[in-house]
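WARN no homologs supplied; continuing
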Amino acid sequence: MKISRAPSFVEFVAMMALMMGITSMSIDNMLPAFDAIAAEFAIDDNRIQLVVYAYLFGFGAMQLVYGPISDSVGRRSVVLGGLAVFCLGSLLAVFAGSFELMLAARVVQGMGAAACRILATAIVRDRYEGREMARVMSLTMMVFIIVPVIAPAIGSFFLLFGSWHYIFISTFAVGLVLALWFGLRMPETLHPDYRQSFSMNRVLGGFGRTIGTRVSLGYSAGAALMMGCLMAYVGGAQQILETDVYGLGPLFPVAFGSIAAAMGVGALINSRLVRRYGTRRLSHGALCCNIAISAAVIPLAIAFGGKPPLLLFCAWIALAHFFFSLTLPNFNAMAMQPLGDIAGTASSFVGFFTTVFGALCGLVVGQAFDGTVLPLAIGFFVLNGAGLAVVVWTERGRLFIPHQPDPRG
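OK structure emitted
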């Protein structure tokens, strides 16, 4: 494809946001369809959550592949190839005749979407670093947060036509549009000096370097634990809000979208403050706040028999989302900061680790759903507490303090 000119800053952020947001869209627009899918395939337990987690496992596993390949052949061709796989998975889901085939299609979808997520991070790292990278990541999150706000409503809209299959047709269309936009507007961003011939020794060496870099490993683990909280909520949101606990029915997309909007507010605030206060002060403070509110919610949930008032539950989850937006982008930026010369390979490992480990944590908490919000509250507290322990280890006990050798950190 011929590229007319490089995208402006605003267009670049919007494109990266859609690349990252295609994953959120492919998860959140399915949530209102859980009952319809469960009815068609005779699923009557928490297994319906696997529609989310199957996607995440495919998404996480392929991140180990796309980054190293992109360090050799460049970012463009890998993104376009991934979008082709994503579109294929969407079509397979349309024609799935069993729950097992549906889950297989979701794995394929996730495998394709991984190219967008992992390469978006690498492309941003190709062009920015330090606090500026954290600012771009926050702006990207602020834009793509629109997706989870409206995705359940879009899914509900397609259900009005009587079939969940239309939701997968819509994801196919979005994947196709993104492929055309990226192909026509985004030049290659991998610096020629960083292009490397593909070799398993180099890839494994890059993974080893990422694991061996204390900051990269520590903040990757912290991000994975935060992701586990988010995935636990997303996996159980439909059961909690729409059916079993609060019974909101058609108002579920409104509640889910309103809560998700808190992440957009947090991302906007993070993008404004990160350059002034630094990634460590903001993310460490937000993590401590999340621990505090999770600890407060547990006794409240017990006092209300596991079903606190709806407004209280929504306020807690919205606050948690807000603080996640002050944590996740900064954790990711700090994990990537020392690894600019192997951004693709490093981004692959970081993305794989945070997604797969986060999905496993979310699956454990989600499958503990018992008709109340208590397992979710306990899960948030445990995962956030573990995240703080990891950060303390990473920073050798020194929280809130920028690294003096790197004024951008």
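The longest helix spans residues 214-243.
OK
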